[in-house]
Amino acid sequence: MNKPMFSIIVPVYNAEKTVSRTIHHLKAILFDSYEVLLINDGSTDQTYELISREITGDSRFQVYTTKNQGPGSARNFGISRAAGKYLLFFDADDYPSPSVLIDYSKLLESNNRIQLIISSFTMITRYNEKLSKKKYLVEDIIYYKKEDFQNSIYQLMCKQLMYVLWNKCYRRDLIIENNIRFKNYRSCEDRMFNLEYFKLCDVVAMNSKNEYYYEYDPSDGITTRYFDDKFDSFKEFYQLANQVTLDRNRTGMAALHLKGTVSVIFSIFGNAHLPWKKKKSQVYSILNDDTIIEAKKITEVDTTPRKLTKLIFDLPNALSFCILNFGSWVERKFPKIIFSIKKRY
Asked: Which residues form the Glycosyltransferase 2-like domain (predicted)?
């Protein structure tokens, strides 16, 4: 087939319960010029077999299998194989609006200077078989100056619109020419990819149409999982965020850094395979980290959760340790409580 306008890259790992549904939604996209690259990241279940069956005979779909190295590495592999002028990154357990590529093509054809599209999306929270929906909306705006966009990044972060990949459309040539790739982390790698890309953007289109449906289970998400380098990734993201926004929102970024650090510490306490002595060592190391010492001094305290977070980090380390350990227990037993607090952050 001719080179497509869009390439959709989907990392897939042990997604046998959802990948067929996702492929059905991807096939239902109302546009002709697109390809889908499904990167099987070393799945150990029936994911590959299901993908192969679902895409047989459809030349728009390709499946590749790689060694399991996490979604960032899988996306990098997809970037190296993509042929489209524009790239989209979707997940294997969510689904897009059928009109997503029609909407994006209209925007891009109306203004060929657009380097990034950021869209509204819907979060579907699944907890104990109960579903709730919340829309995260943007207004139809086009930023024509890099400075104007950079000035908006922090507020858009607070609205949960900037971290993720799947509500965005990127230009492949900017990614390739500037060698932007996902870092070798299993957490925050998407956020850092975005920030590196944001540095290049002069013209950014905000698209009010709801283009993606993200399903989230607060008891089972990558944000609650433990990784050895998880704090390193949050720390690097915090420093990069200040760099990209030219230190314009240091106090707000500090609040977001503390929020992220709480989730890191919760994941340490929640890891049943980690010896208690190592948990204690890791948590105390984080509490004494220079970025945390700075963040708790300068953080914004404009909401109740932010005030509470600062209070916890300002306590002597032994007390902070105990309270955060209790908070981790609450998250494991009653994840909806912690999730609702995060939403008000």
From this structure: 7-131
The pLDDT mean for the chain works out to 94
The tens digit of pLDDT for each residue in 89-113 reads 999 999 999 999 999 999 999 999 9
- Please state the domain count of the chain: 2
* Residue 233 and residue 188 share a domain: no
Same domain, 26 and 119: yes
Taking a C-beta distance cutoff of 8 angstroms, is the pair 7, 82 a contact?
A: yes
pTM: 0.93
Is the dihedral angle over the CA atoms 284, 287, 291, 294 positive or is it negative? negative
Q: Residues 206, 161: contact at Cβ < 8 Å?
A: no
Q: Is the dihedral of CA 154, 149, 246, 86 positive or negative?
A: positive
Please give the DSSP secondary-structure letter assigned to residue 116: E
Q: Residue-wise over 300-329: b if at least 16 C-beta within 10 A, else e?
A: beeeebbebbbebbeeeeeebbeebbebbe
Structural domain harbouring 86: 6-216
| 288: three-class secondary structure by DSSP | coil
CA-to-CA distance for 187 and 227, rounded, in angstroms? 8
Amino acid in position 184: N
Residues 274 and 166 in one domain: no
- Would you state the structure tokens that stand for residue 209, as one six-digit string? 């149409």
Q: 37-57, pLDDT tens digit by residue?
A: 999 999 999 999 999 999 999
Q: Which token pair is 185?
A: 């982390």
Backbone angles phi and psi of 186, in degrees to 5: -105, 5
Is residue 137 situated within a structural domain? yes
Cα distance between residue 94 and residue 60, in whole Å = 19
Short-list 119, 95, 117, 98, CA closest to 108: 117
